[in-house]
Automatic annotation (TrEMBL):
Protein's organism: Rhodosorus marinus
PANTHER family membership: APOPTOSIS-INDUCING FACTOR 1 (PTHR43557), MONODEHYDROASCORBATE REDUCTASE, CHLOROPLASTIC_MITOCHONDRIAL (PTHR43557:SF6)
EC category: oxidoreductase
One Pfam family matching this protein: Pyr_redox_2
All copies of domain Monodehydroascorbate reductase 3-like C-terminal, residue ranges: 343-414
Keyword Flavoprotein: yes
Lineage, broadest ranks: Eukaryota, Rhodophyta, Stylonematophyceae, Stylonematales, Stylonemataceae
MF GO annotations: monodehydroascorbate reductase (NADH) activity
Assigned protein family: Belongs to the FAD-dependent oxidoreductase family.
Protein name from the UniProt record: monodehydroascorbate reductase (NADH)
UniProt EC number: 1.6.5.4
Any GO CC annotation of this UniProt entry: cytoplasm
Signal sequence extent: none
Residues annotated as domain FAD/NAD(P)-binding: 7-325
């Protein structure tokens, strides 16, 4: 019937990972209308990291179709025409609200039904909302995940030039949005309860360098106990400030615009009674197979075995979205495909800085150099687990990848005594 379609390969979600699945399926030579994407978003898959970067501050700003997948991974730019030309159905503006995995079909809010032989779940994450806090519905409070959110945030930032922008959360969203707000000409205040920014990766000595840099760029940092407890209104439904508590004392930080970046949760609820979960995500094996036959999960929503470190993990990073997509498609077509062996890689760009990290941030940290060039190492029992470089060259990137893969043994005292970040990379 009109409202019912069926596919051999159905991808649920139209984000970063979905775009790379489409590319891999086309490379395998799928037939016309054998494969489809179903997405809640109104646009074809794109490189999500752009939303907190050039999208917000560049002149002219990055806009679709400029950053559709797979430009970030060095592939074709898959604008909607690409899907049409390659015979992959793009079902946009369709939010899936029912999943019947045994019956092999999913249903959307609008009533459309999509059958499948193989389902690849790529639903990503949703921002954690502070919706239980007082004043959470006030106008002027933003979250950032999708193209539509970023368009609204862009307009708000540009409408509040010269004014305070309150950013709640000191992770990468907070850091990137604070940098964008400063570049646009707003007065950003970065508010978070931890002792320093990027507390999941940075260690105190490293965070100190970035915090000093941020202050120089005009970003005020309210940290170490500054917990957001609610939002103050102006009496007309608009935000007037963020309520914080610091050492038991309450205060209101005034501002009409607030961006919240306090983490994300995997979109796995749809399947919670049908699929095994772990670490909040859909549990998969090294071939991205879930606990139900013919159902796969990739990208942010998947909890997978991190072979190198012999533990389960979930990664909210674009490199994993891309690589898991390609690997899952390989496994779909060839059951002899080896298990996924991922080397964790993170990056961020703020102001004119850019950093990269490879490996595992476990062990004693050692920092060498200063912004604009520094290197850092995480060392456990003399072995390097993780390596970080601010301002890496293309060659450094390859060196870092090799170090994190080989995990060489080093003398911590000798390494700590170095002052040249490049010298330190010659491990
Ligand atoms: P997503 O790209 O989030 O895609 C999920 C898709 O599923 C979306 O289209 C969503 O609408 C759809 N969906 C969900 N539920 C349903 C449903 N029920 N029905 C229909 N559709 C549904 N990573 C980095 O490594 N470096 C960075 O610098 C970086 N910057 C980032 C900046 C921002 C602002 C954000 C939000 C993320 C950033 N990331 C970054 C993380 C990176 O974007 C994610 O890891 C990546 O997008 C994950 O891909 P995914 O396909 O798993 O999920």
């Amino acid at each position: 019937s009109e409202g019912s379609k069926s596919y051999k390969y159905l991808v649920l979600g139209g984000g970063n990972a979905a775009g790379y699945v489409a590319r891999a399926l086309v490379e395998k030579g799928v037939d016309k209308s054998e494969a489809a994407i179903v997405s809640r978003e109104e646009v074809a898959p794109y490189e999500r990291p752009a939303l907190s970067k050039a999208f917000l501050f560049a002149d002219p700003p990055a806009r679709l179709p400029g950053f559709h997948t797979c430009v970030g991974g060095g592939g074709d730019r898959q604008a909607p025409e690409w899907y049409e030309e390659n015979g992959i159905d793009l079902n946009l503006n369709e939010e899936i609200v029912v999943a019947d995995l045994n019956g092999k079909k999913i249903k959307s809010k609008s009533g459309a039904e999509f059958g499948f032989e193989k389902l690849i779940v790529a639903t990503g994450c949703a921002p954690i909302k502070l919706s239980k806090l007082e004043g959470a519905d006030l106008k002027g409070i933003h979250y950032l995940r999708e193209n539509a959110d970023a368009l609204e945030l862009y307009d708000s930032l540009h409408a509040h030039k010269g004014e305070e922008v309150l950013i709640v959360g000191g992770g990468y969203i907070g850091m990137e949005v604070a940098a964008a707000a400063a570049i646009v000409g707003c007065k950003p205040k970065l508010i978070f309860p931890e002792e320093h920014m990027m507390s999941r990766l940075f260690f105190p000595a490293m965070a100190k360098k970035y915090e000093a840099f941020y202050k120089e760029k005009g970003v005020e940092i309210l940290k170490d106990g500054y917990l957001c407890e609610g939002f103050a209104g102006d009496g007309e439904g608009n935000l007037a400030g963020v309520k914080v508590a610091k050492d038991g004392k309450q205060e209101v930080i005034p501002g009409k615009l607030c961006v919240i970046g306090v983490g994300a949760r995997p979109n796995a609820q749809l399947f919670s009674d049908q699929l095994e979960t772990e670490l909040g995500g859909i549990k998969v094996n090294g071939k991205f197979e879930s606990s139900v036959k013919d159902v796969y999960a990739i990208g942010d929503v998947a909890s997978f075995p991190l072979k190198k470190y012999n533990r389960m993990t979930r990664m909210e990073h674009v490199a994993h979205a891309r690589q898991s997509a390609a690997h899952a498609v390989d496994a779909l077509f060839d059951s002899a495909t080896a298990d996924y062996d991922y080397l964790p890689y993170f990056y961020s760009r703020v102001f004119d800085l850019s950093w990269q990290f490879f490996g595992d941030s476990v062990g004693e940290p050692v920092l060498i150099g200063d912004i604009p060039k520094m290197s850092a190492f995480w060392i456990e029992n003399g072995q390097v687990n993780g390596v970080f470089v601010e301002g890496p060259t293309a060659e450094d990137t390859e060196t870092m990848r090799a170090i994190a893969s080989k995990r060489p043994t080093v003398d911590v005292d000798e390494l700590s005594a170095l002052s040249d970040p490049d010298e330190a990379l010659k491990l």
